[in-house]
Write a structure and sequence with these properties.
The structure holds 3 protein chains of 3 kinds. Chain B has helices spanning 5-23, 26-50, 74-92, 96-101, 106-125, 129-148, 154-184, 189-199, 203-220, 228-235, 238-264, 266-272, 275-295, 300-320, 324-355, 366-369, 371-385, 391-405, 409-435, 452-470, 473-490; strands at 55-58, 69-72. By secondary structure, chain B is an all-alpha fold. In chain B, helix 2 (26-50) runs parallel beside helix 5 (106-125) and helix 15 (324-355) packs across helix 21 (473-490). By secondary structure, chain C is mainly alpha-helical. Chain C has helices spanning 2-6, 11-17, 25-44, 68-87, 94-111, 116-140, 145-177, 191-203, 211-216, 222-244, 250-267, 271-292, 295-326, 342-355, 362-376, 380-406, 420-438, 440-446, 450-454, 461-484, 499-503, 505-543, 555-579, 582-602, 608-620, 626-655, 664-701; strands at 51-56, 59-65, 494-495. In chain C, strands 1-2 form a two-stranded antiparallel sheet. In chain C, a hairpin with a 2-residue loop joins strand 1 (51-56) and strand 2 (59-65). The chains are: A mainly alpha, B mainly alpha, C mainly alpha. Chains A and C meet through helix 2, helix 3 and strand 1 of A and helix 11, helix 15, helix 16, helix 20 and strand 3 of C. Strand 1 (80-81) of chain A pairs antiparallel with strand 3 (494-495) of chain C, so a sheet runs across the interface.
Chain lengths: 120, 491, 710
């Protein structure tokens, strides 16, 4: 639907998309360097042993992100359905008998909605 | 004067009925009927509020057990007050639609209505078993007539159906009373309850009770015997269905309580006959089947009627517990449901008078057009569900307490689960009223504006049901006294 | 002043909501905006420790209880209510304003409820009022009406179901503990507590009970979703914190909640549904905090709820603004909107960074408390799950939401910036997010344990550094995946969740069983009616007016049949009762006997006639079994004799003490009376033991009256 429309002129952000990506990579490198510096100069406040390693949070962030996205892709195979999935009517597959042999009105039971209410 | 109140409650409507026919004046008949019901209601309320113990009134001055005795205890006064008040509301301020239902037949309509009121009041106040039957027949016969006066031709079928089943019920009651008389030699409630203890191990006594229970069960619309109710309620003239919905089954329920508590005794009925085990499953089925059917009804009045069947399930469930707490809950629910259901039927009548048809989808989008009526319906519906702040919650709470005190928490869950069904059918109407666009091809409204007579009585009843929900101690305390006096005397 | 503190906090909003329809146009919007402010001023009147009580059904209710825990939730609910009303400034229909105000007022009332019954009332009120926010969307978009109605019914049934569980749990809890006080509960202490826990669990969207959030929230109106997301779940968090703090099972539950929704959030195309999943994930953090239960953890949960309402509201507002302007909220149809909606973009990014816990923003200073509490409790696995979930939040809320809406591929939308009032609401929320991030101490002072909070420092170098690493490397991963073309594209589709089970198989089950039932009925009735049915049918076809006129065929007959069946059953029941010998009959007889004996004792001493009558009844009472008859005889004799003695005594008293003037016949009467009384007393002594012992044995054997004294 949107293909027919003309996009607005490129914005600064779009022009600098690659630069932004580069900046992110740069910050990542800086953070790792900071981590190294902090490990030797400062005092780490940790709860668990694994937190002591350099760059472990970077690893956790990266790996869990990739793992999450990839496993979600797998999950998609399992759970994805067309958009109108729930709106499609459910068809009863109960034994369908041949048309009732007698046109004797079914005995009005308690639960069945009464048919006599049709405006006649 | 005040000692004659019990008989006045019955006599005033009973004597006004022929008066209406003799006077043969349309407007006068309506005024007379209104006045008679209002007088009866005044008498009932005076009695209910000033009595300090059960009142006994020997008819004609004959000593009870020889003569006929009228006997009104707290519970009786409570039911009588409800019946007569609802009668006043249903008849006096009825909608234009109500009045138009019976154009040309006013005298007979009002006469039959008064007879019906007299019959129901008589059943409540009498202390004599045979009189119960007599008044039962008076009220039933006039009810058949009233139902048959409905506008559509289907009303005749509904009335006929009701006639068959009602007669069957009446006959069963009569057989039961006959057997009871045979065993005890008396028809007076107090005397019966004293003597029944000597014969309660005999088969005939059991049979007497079985006939009475099933006979009243038909009139009360206990689950598999309820088929007359939807037709009768949905085809009768509006004033009548509003009145019947609030009173007929309630009086029968009260009679059943009296048969169990006053005549046969709780110990006998529940410990020896295991009546509770018989009534309980039926009540549970009624709670669910009635509400489920209500969800699928295409017309407003049928929806309300099926909801009544579900509500009768709560009533009988409360009785089947066989405890004072249960009785208390039953009596509370009797009042709560009477007020609520009458209000809802009156609102339904007002709507139907406006659109000229009671199919549910004809009400589409009317919430905006008739904001007060619709709001009334919502509040009444909330009371039907048992939402806190309404009288329906007070009674449902009492019922839950009674069930839990009996040590059966699973019953409490079933009660709550069936309330969820009520949520669905009430919100079904709410959705139609507020969230649907008016039908494109709808025929024009029969009238533009709702006249005040159509929403004032309903509005008052809705206010009562909300008010009693807020000041819940008013009904609870009175009914607790009533249940105690009924039950305390029994055991 | 005093009169106002009689009302519960939030009452002004509920009461005020009733008058909304009286106003028109701008006046209405202004009035609606003023109500939360008034209500907040009202809340300020209550001091910490305030308690207000009321009486209902003979229970004393604690209508108002103000302490630090309820206060912080009360404050944030007021802020949220104000922001929601501001955001909904454009809405013309009173319905949504009324629903919003009542809903917010009820949530505030519930927060300050001191007992379970009051809590239940407000709990139900939130359910009933909030459903209108969903229904309202059907009014805006008629083509969605059917769908919206079904969604709202599902929502309502689940919400009311939670209330029903709460009520049932309350009753059971009361049965067990005789207390309605809403305080710390123990799951083992009473089954009621378990039901209450489940009721809270439904509203807190525990795993498997969670689906109503994702089902209903995205279906509400533009402003409705913001309102819905602010109150219900956070009310449940409050209730859990109040009732079940430190309950261990909450820790794994919460961890599950943080982890599993993020997979769905990655896949989901409807961006408001993505936020609903992320809502679920954020609730998980709070639930973990409540489960840990230390002062730091509870502080963390409360603080996180506070911050969460703001940034989640901010994100939903920005998505709502997009929906309002473009008419769609599907990621696959959006993109490039930063050019036309720059301010909304900026606010959305602030919200996204907040929820990702970027240092300097509100999420950072609150989430870190929970994570630290978990670390201090040395729950390694949970800690790992929370880290994983943090990366996940960064994906779906931090990157996916702003990226696919405002950047990504420009789909050529040329729309206006969001309306001013929406921008203002978003701006306020964004300012609060930044404010809390920069000055966390203001929020910390409001927390349930302010001393513990004052000692906590979020901006600690290790923490800032590690969090930044986590977030930036997650961002790096995103860039890598996109550049490699591995990142899953946004597809218009729905993803199955647990609601599958009640939306498909259950529906199918109902449909199938109905079909089966009608098949069985057709077969059985058809056969039973057989020939007669055929004959009748042909008659009817030829001779009856069209169907429907006849009314309800068979019903009278069927009902008669039922009546006969019922009678039969009752007779069966009763005959087994009456004639069945053995233990049952004997027990009945014994109870009957005890009852009659009790009846005599129950009569006042002076009512001689009544006593006489009852003794006679006892004497004639038919019984089976020698021993019972012996007891009956003994008791009848004893009570007869007692009565006789009392009667003679009364006679003696009536004559009075004799003196010289007493005539001879009086003296003789006195003499006789004395003799009779003595004889009666002797008879009492003879039978007393047999009667008293006999009834005592019977009473012991056949259990005293089951119904007790009721």
């Amino acid at each position: 639907m949107s293909d027919a429309r003309e996009p607005l002129p490129e914005s600064a952000i779009e022009r600098n998309a690659v630069n932004i990506q580069r900046a992110v990579v740069g910050v990542c490198v800086l953070l790792l360097l900071a981590d190294v510096a902090f490990t030797f100069l400062g005092h780490r406040h940790t709860h668990f042993g694994f937190e002591g390693y350099i760059g472990v949070y970077a690893l956790v962030g990266f790996v869990s992100y990739v793992g999450l996205v990839l496993s979600a892709k797998l999950l998609r195979k399992l759970v994805m359905r067309p958009e109108d999935y729930y709106d499609a009517p459910v068809v009863a597959a109960a034994p369908v008998s041949e048309p009732a042999p007698v046109s004797e009105p079914a005995p009005a039971t308690e639960v069945a909605p009464d048919t006599t209410e049709d405006p006649s | 004067m005040s000692e004659h109140l019990p008989i006045l409650m019955v006599l005033v409507p009973l004597l006004s009925a022929p008066l209406v026919v003799f006077i043969k004046h349309r407007k006068a008949s309506r005024v007379i009927a209104t006045l008679a019901c209002a007088l009866s209601a005044c008498a009932a309320w005076t009695l209910a509020l000033q009595m300090s113990s059960a009142v006994s009134y020997p008819l004609g001055g004959w000593r009870p057990a020889i003569g006929i005795e009228l006997r009104v205890d707290f519970a009786g006064a409570y039911v009588a007050a409800i019946v007569s008040t609802i009668a006043t509301f249903a008849i006096s301020l009825g909608t234009r639609g109500t009045r138009e239902d019976v154009v040309g037949r006013e005298m007979f309509f009002y006469a039959a209505f008064l007879m019906c009121v007299a019959g129901l009041m008589g059943m409540v106040v009498t202390g004599d078993a045979f009189n119960v039957f007599v008044f039962l027949e008076i009220s039933s016969l006039s009810t058949y007539t009233l139902v048959a006066m409905g506008k559509e031709r289907r009303a005749l079928t509904a009335a006929l159906n009701y006639l068959f089943l009602g007669t069957l019920g009446g006959t069963f009651v009569l057989i039961g009373i006959g057997l009871m008389y045979q065993m005890t030699g008396t028809l007076n409630a107090a005397a019966v309850s004293a003597r029944i203890r000597e014969v309660e191990h005999l088969r005939t006594t059991h049979v007497a009770f079985a006939f009475l229970a099933v006979g009243l069960g038909i009139k009360l619309a206990v689950f598999p015997l309820h088929q007359w109710l939807p037709g009768a309620y949905s085809q009768a003239p509006h004033a009548v269905s509003s009145f019947l919905a609030g009173t007929a089954t309630k009086v029968m329920y009260f009679q059943l309580i009296r048969v169990v508590v006053s005549f046969f005794g709780v110990a006998y009925v529940f410990d020896t006959l295991h009546f509770g085990d018989f009534l309980l499953p039926l009540s549970l089925v009624a709670m669910f089947a009635g509400s489920l059917s209500a969800i699928f009804q295409p017309s407003l009045r049928r929806l309300l009627a099926y909801s009544s069947i579900g509500q009768v399930g709560y009533l009988t469930l409360a009785l089947s517990l066989g405890t004072e707490a249960g009785l208390n809950a039953g009596l509370l629910h009797l009042g709560a449901h009477a007020v609520t259901k009458t209000a809802l039927f009156l609102i339904a009548a007002a709507f139907i008078a406006q659109v000229g048809d009671d199919r549910l989808d004809r009400l589409s989008g009317l919430g905006k057009r008739y904001p007060l009526l619709s709001l009334g319906f919502v509040l009444g519906g909330l009371s039907l569900i048992g939402v806190p702040g309404t009288v329906g919650f007070v009674s449902k709470w009492a019922l839950l307490e009674a069930v839990l005190a009996g040590g059966r928490p699973w019953l409490a869950f079933l009660i709550l689960a069936s309330s969820m069904l009520a949520v669905v059918y009430v919100f079904r109407v709410v959705e139609v009223l507020y969230f649907r666009a008016p039908l494109a091809n709808a025929p024009p409204l029969a009238r533009e504006r709702a006249d005040w007579g159509s929403w004032v009585p309903a509005g008052l009843l809705v206010l009562v049901s909300v008010g009693l929900g807020v000041w819940s101690e008013l009904p609870s305390e009175y009914v607790a006294t009533a249940a105690q006096s009924l039950f305390g005397g029994a055991r | 002043m005093n009169a106002l503190t009689q009302l519960f906090p939030g009452a002004l909003m509920i009461l005020g909501a009733c008058f909304v329809p009286l106003f028109r146009g701008r006046a209405r919007s202004a009035y609606v905006l003023a109500l939360p402010l008034l209500s907040a001023a009202h809340l300020a009147l209550f001091s910490l420790g305030h308690q207000g009580s009321a009486t209902l059904f003979g229970y004393t209710l604690e209508l108002v209880r103000v302490d630090a825990l309820s206060r912080i939730f009360g404050v944030i609910f007021h802020i949220a209510a104000f922001l929601c009303c501001l955001y909904a400034f454009h809405v013309k229909r009173p319905l949504e304003h009324v629903a919003t105000l009542v809903y917010a007022g009820a949530a505030i009332g519930a927060t300050f409820a001191g007992d379970l019954l009051t809590l239940f009332v407000f709990w139900e009120l939130t359910a009933l009022s909030s459903v209108f926010l969903i229904l309202a969307r059907g009014l805006d978009e008629p083509e969605r009406r059917e769908r919206v109605f079904r969604v709202s019914m599902r929502y309502l049934v689940i919400q009311v179901g939670s209330g029903v569980l709460l009520l049932a749990g309350t009753l059971l809890y009361y049965q067990g503990t005789r207390s309605l006080h809403f305080g710390r509960m123990n799951l083992e202490e009473s089954p009621g507590a378990l039901f209450i826990f489940l009721a809270f669990g439904i509203k807190a969207a525990f795993p498997l009970l969670h689906n109503w959030v994702q089902d209903a929230y995205p279906e509400a109106s533009v402003s409705g979703t913001v309102v819905l997301a602010s109150f219900t779940t956070k009310l449940a968090i409050y209730a859990l914190a109040r009732g079940f703090a430190g309950t261990d099972v909450l820790i794994p539950i919460g961890a599950c909640m943080t982890a599993f929704p993020i997979f769905f959030a990655v896949l989901e195309n409807d961006l408001r549904r993505v936020l609903a999943y992320s809502l679920n994930n954020q609730l998980g953090y709070m639930v973990v905090g409540i489960g840990v239960g230390t002062e730091l953890a509870i502080n963390g949960a409360a603080a996180h709820a506070f911050a969460h309402i703001l940034y989640k509201g901010l994100l939903l507002m920005s998505m709502g603004a997009v929906l309002y302007r473009t008419g769609t909220i599907k990621a696959s149809e959006l993109g490039g909107l930063h050019k036309s909606m720059p301010l909304t973009t900026a606010f959305c990014i602030i919200g996204a960074l907040s929820i990702s816990a970027f240092p300097g923003l509100s999420g950072f200073v609150t989430k870190s408390m929970i994570v630290s509490a978990v670390g201090e409790a040395h729950l390694l696995v949970i800690f790992g799950v929370l880290l994983f979930a943090s990366a996940g939040v960064c994906d779906h809320s931090g990157i996916k939401i702003p990226f696919f809406t405002f950047f990504a591929h420009d789909q050529g939308w040329k729309v206006q910036e969001a309306p001013k009032h929406m921008l203002l609401a978003m701006g306020l929320a964004a300012a609060l997010c930044i404010g809390i991030g920069v000055f966390p101490s203001a929020l910390y002072a409001l927390l349930p344990f302010p001393e513990a909070a004052a000692q906590y420092h979020a901006y600690e170098t290790t923490h800032v550094l590690t969090m930044l690493q986590l977030l930036f490397f997650a961002g790096l991963a995103f860039i890598t995946l996109v550049r490699l073309g591995v990142y899953p594209p946004e597809l218009p589709a729905i993803n199955l969740d647990t609601d599958y089970f009640y939306r498909r198989p259950l529906k199918r089950f109902v449909v199938e069983s109905y079909a089966l039932a009608s098949w069985v009925r057709e077969r059985t009735w058809g056969m039973a009616l057989g020939l007669r049915g055929r004959a009748l049918a042909s008659l009817r076809r030829n001779h009856e007016p069209p169907r429907g006129r006849l009314g309800e065929p068979w019903t009278a007959g069927a009902t008669t049949l039922f009546a006969a069946l019922m009678l039969f059953t009752l007779l069966l029941l009763t005959s087994s009762a009456g004639c069945g010998g053995g233990e049952d009959a004997e027990a009945n007889d014994a109870r009957l006997l005890l009852d009659r004996v009790g009846a005599i004792e129950g009569v006042p001493e002076q009512a001689f006639e009544a006593r006489m009558e009852r003794v006679e009844v006892l004497r004639r009472l038919p019984l089976r079994g020698e021993s019972l008859i012996a007891v009956r005889e003994a008791c009848a004799e004893m009570h007869g004799a007692l009565l006789e003695a009392d009667v003679q005594n009364a006679l003696i008293h009536s004559i009075g003490a004799p003196d010289e003037d007493t005539p001879a016949e009086e003296l003789a009467r006195l003499e006789r009376a004395f003799t009779a009384a003595e004889a009666a007393a002797a008879r009492v002594v003879v039978h007393r033991d047999a009667c008293v012992d006999g009834t005592a044995t019977l009473r012991a054997r056949y259990a005293p009256d089951r119904r007790g004294s009721e």
